[in-house]
Amino acid sequence: MPRPTRDPRTARAVWAPLLLATAAVVYNDWVLEFLLPTGLDPRHSYVSELYAADQRFHGLFGGIELLAAALVVAGALLARGRSPGRWEDAGWWSLVAFGVASVADVAVPMRCAPSVESPCEAVNPWHTTTSALVHLALFASMALLVTSAALGAPSRPAVRRWGPWVLGTAMTTALATVGPLFGRPGWHGAPQRAHLLLVGVWFGLLAAALRAEARPRPGTARLPGRPAPRVVAGQPIRPYTCSAPENDGR
C-alpha cells in the first residue's frame, strides 16, 4: 500500500507553536543565575553580563541564547507559511530579524561585567548596536502582528486583546534599563528581567494563536469513515458534514 503523504500545513500547525512556546522558556535562561554561582546581582546587572567574554558561564549562557534564537527563527519561518499577508508577513520576518540580531548579540558579547568590574565600560559599541537591533526587530514584530490580528485575523483574539499591553509594558521595561548607558547604573537588572519575561509572554501568545488557528472549525468535521474532499476537474467536491434532515412536512 502506498504510504500516506504528510500535509505540510499539519506539520506547521504542530511545530510552529511548539518551537515558539519552547523559545519562550529558553529565552528566559537568566533564571539559572539563581542556581549557579555567577557572582552577579540580578537587581543591578544586565543579563548580557552572564555571557560576557570574561565570565565563568560565558559558554553556557551564550549557547542557550543561540538555541533560543534558532527556535524563534524556525518557528517564525514555519508560521509565516500558514497565512501570508502584508502585515502578517512583515511581522514574521521581523521575528526572524530578531533571531538573527540575537545571534549577532552573542557573537559580539560584552568584554566584561560592568556591574562588578569598575574599569569595565557599560557601553560596548558593537554589543550595544546589536542589542538595539534586537529590540527594534522585537517591537516591530509585536506592532505588525498585533495590527494583523486587529485587521484580519479573527482567530487570534488573545493577540488582539493582550498584544498591545505586552508591547507597551515591554517598551517601558526596556527603557528602564538604559541608565548605565547615561552614567546612572543601578536597579536596571530588575526591569530587564521583567522585559525578558514579557518577551516570553509574547512568544506564548503567538504559539497559542497558531494552535487555535489549527483547530477545526465547527461544522467542518467529516463523518467517520468518509473520505477527505477530492478535487475533480479542478472543482472541489463539497465535504461531508453532519446536518439534521430537512422536514418536508410529511
- Kindly report the average pLDDT value: 84
Our Rg estimate from Cα atoms comes to: 23 Å
**Beta-strand percentage range:** under 5%
Output the strand order for the largest sheet.
1-2
What is the N-to-C succession of helices and strands? HHHHHHEE
What does the main sheet amount to? 2 strands, antiparallel
Give the low-confidence spans.
1-5, 220-229, 242-250
Shape: elongated
Query: In terms of structural class, how would the helical and strand content be classed?
Result: mainly alpha
Helix content: 40-55%
Number of helices: 6
Pfam families: DUF998 (PF06197)
Region (Disordered): 217-250
Protein name: DUF998 domain-containing protein
Organism: Streptomyces ehimensis
Describe the protein in words.
A two-stranded antiparallel ribbon has the order 1-2. It contains 6 helices and 2 strands; from the N terminus they run ααααααββ. By secondary structure, the chain is mainly α. Strand 1 (231-232) and strand 2 (235-236) form a beta hairpin. The model is unreliable at 1-5, 220-229 and 242-250 (pLDDT under 50). The chain has helices spanning 8-26, 58-80, 86-107, 125-152, 157-175, 189-214, and strands spanning 231-232, 235-236. It is elongated, with a radius of gyration of 23 Å.
